[in-house]
Structures are given as structure tokens and as C-alpha cells.
Amino acid sequence: MCWYWIIGLNNFGCLIYLNEYQTRISKKSDSQKDALFKYNNVVRHFSLLKNMIEIIRTDSQNLEFKKLVQLLNSDLAKRDGKIHPLSQFNNISSIKYVILVMKKDKAIGCGAISKYDNNSMEIKRMYVSPEARGQRIGEKILLELENWSRELGNTKCLLFMGSKQPEASKLYQRNNYDLIEKYGKLKAIPDSICLAKDL
After folding, report:
1. Residues 99 and 139: beta-carbon distance below 8 Å
2. Residue that wins the pLDDT comparison between 2 and 71
3. Which residues, listed in sequence order, are joined to residue 161 by a DSSP beta bridge?
4. Which of 60, 80, 132, 176 is the most exposed place for a label (fewest CB within 10 A)?
5. Which of the two residues, 91 and 59, has the higher pLDDT score?
6. How far apart are CA 39 and CA 24, in angstroms?
7. Cβ neighbour number for residue 4 with a 10 Å cutoff
8. CATH of 54-198, one of 3.30.470.20, 3.30.230.10, 1.10.150.390, 3.40.630.30
9. 3-state DSSP call for residue 53?
């Protein structure tokens, strides 16, 4: 069983070792199928390790979060125009609850929550880097934000978005967010959309 341990030590060496191991197995009788099955599982596990992501809880002072928010703001400016009423809510200076998704020590996605009322958290600053989209990273961020909201004693998450964000709209609909009446300053912004979910 030592070859499981070798995989974790040396990527290059482990690939050579596994290839040699597979060659030896292929020359043996059918009674070795179980060993080959274990080998295939190890290869599959090694592939998963290369694609592993890490979810980090932090706050808005995190530099990686700030970089992603800059990219988010640029993306929204392209969709909505540089001057849009929703941009007044872009301030992140005092957000206590931030989620970062890391892959190979690089931040590829973020999201945040802030207190809205006694029972609700507002989801903010959701973003996934273009190269990481299509991998359900946004869903992982959303789930972690919901879990954190529950841990803080809340029973609801709510959020707002612009009408020119179809990808975000699909994400929230897929995760059981419903349209609600516009709240606060959003009532005066025609193309804003408000959603909520009971936790």
C-alpha cells in the first residue's frame, strides 16, 4: 500500500511509479483485477487533488478579496455603464463576513454577507473569475454564505442585483431564491431585482 503514500510526495515520480505498476498488473491473471481497480481509484484521486479548491472565511480587509471586487466592479460597469445607481452599494470597507475560493493559491471567487435585520443577512459582492466559471464555484460560495448566515443565528438571506446579470439570476433561481418586493433605496432603481430565501 506504500504507493498511496508516494503519490502525495512527488507528482512526477508518482506518475512514473503508477505507470510501471499498471504495466505489471496488465501482465498478470484476471485475479489481479481488484488491484487494477485500486490503481484506477488512486489515479482518479490524484486528478481530484490537482483540481481541489479551498474555501476561506475572512473579512473585507483581505487583499485578494479587494482584487476580485475590482474585477467585479469592472464587469458591472461594462454591463450597466460606468455610472449606475447600483454602484452606490459597492463599498466594502466594513464587511465582516467574506468568503474566498482559492485554487493553487490563487483567489478565483468571492462573496460576502452583512447584517440586514435581526433575522436576515444580505448577500453581497458575488464574483467568479472568468476562467473558473462553469464549475459551480458560485454555488459553493453561495452555500457557504448560507451556512455562515445560519451559524450567526439568521433565518433568511436576501440580495439585490441588476437586470443585466443573467448568469447570477440562473444561479439564484437554481438555489431556490424567490423574487421579493424591492427594499430600501432599491425601490427607486427601476432595473434592480431583489431576491430572498428562507434558510
Report:
1. no
2. 71
3. 193
4. 176
5. 59
6. 12
7. 13
8. 3.40.630.30
9. coil
